[in-house]
Amino acid sequence: MSPLLVVAGKELRDGLRNRWVLAATGLLAALALGLAFLGSAPTGTVGVPPLAVTVVSLASLSAFLLPLIALLLSFDAIVGEHERGTLLLLLAYPVSRWQVLGGKFLGHVAILTIATVVGYGSAGLAVTAVAGAEPQTWPAFGVLIGSSVLLGAVFVGIGYLVSALVGERGTAAGLAVAVWLVLVLLYDLALLGLLAADQGSHLSSELFRSLLLANPADAYRLLNLTGFEEVRQFSGLAGLAPDARPAPGPLLLGLGAWLAIPLLAAAGLLARREL
User: Fold this and answer.
1) How far is 75 from 176, CA to CA, in rounded Å?
2) Is 27 helix (H, G, I), strand (E, B) or coil?
3) Residue-level pLDDT at 263
4) DSSP secondary structure string, 6-26?
5) CA pair distance 229, 237, nearest whole angstrom
6) Domain boundaries in the chain?
7) Integer Cα distance of 78 and 154 in angstroms
8) Is the Cβ–Cβ distance between 75 and 161 less than 8 Å?
9) CA 141 from centre of chain
10) Measured between alpha carbons, how far is 140 from 43 in angstroms, rounded to an integer?
11) Whole-angstrom Cα distance, residue 15 to residue 39?
């Protein structure tokens, strides 16, 4: 078996042993079910597809919660192994450093995939069983699950970069929390402040769209809230002109760049790290 898959299997087994899979799945399922039924409660009287409202609610939830779960999974992947001495032991086997990093990545993404598919899938099936769902809303729900896994993978890569940059596990934990605060909370607040200060005099719509694409959490939100007409009608973005809506292609490219660049940077730092 490939060393990459061996390391990935070890990470997945560690996640099962440490109850990471169970905890993440239970948390996502509980919050998703709560949002799904609370959000879709009034839809029967106003003719709104309940699954479309669920997509809007879960897209907002995922943009906050999945990055945090991913960073908690990955922030000590390198520095923690180094502090415990297990990284040196692991590299004593016929496995390269990039295979260690790649295997860890596959294992952690597998944990997030199981949690997301089971947690969100159970919410979607429950809403469909209770309230019914129109067939045209299922593609939007499928994109929500797939892009949620991609968002989690992006922040796993960012967590690895944080872990490769520092020399202590405590420092990595603090830096991971700071990254989450900046990208998930403070970035949007800064954009709102910039819009309020500019008052439309210098900040063009193209520049503002580029600033949104520069943040993986915002790119994820836009992909799910503007990508399908059935969802866009109930997300508050239906009034956007067609030329003001970012196309799905650039949004996916932005998320792909956020996935590749931190992961490659972490691999480069690990390759030069003294053990």
Assistant:
1) 6
2) helix
3) 94
4) HHHHHHHHHHHHTTHHHHHHH
5) 10
6) 3-272
7) 17
8) no
9) 15
10) 18
11) 32
Instruction: For residue 273, give the amino acid letter.
Output: R
Reported confidence tier of residue 68, pLDDT bands at 50, 70, 90: very high
Question: What is the model's pTM?
Answer: 0.89
Q: pLDDT value at position 84?
A: 85
Distances (CA, A) of 194 to 8, 39, 212, 254: 43, 31, 13, 22
Mean pLDDT on 52-70: 87
Flag whether pLDDT at 177 surpasses 90: yes
Q: How far is CA 197 from the centre of its chain?
A: 30
Distance separating alpha carbons of residues 186 and 190, to the nearest angstrom: 6
d(CA 97, CA 271): 6
* Alpha-carbon gap, residue 64 to 114, rounded angstroms: 18
Percent of the chain with pLDDT over 70: 87
| Cα distances (Å, whole numbers) of residue 261 to 92, 167, 265 | 28, 21, 6
Residue 239 has pLDDT above 50, yes or no: no
Q: Which residues contact 203 (CB under 8 A, 6 or more apart)?
A: 194, 195
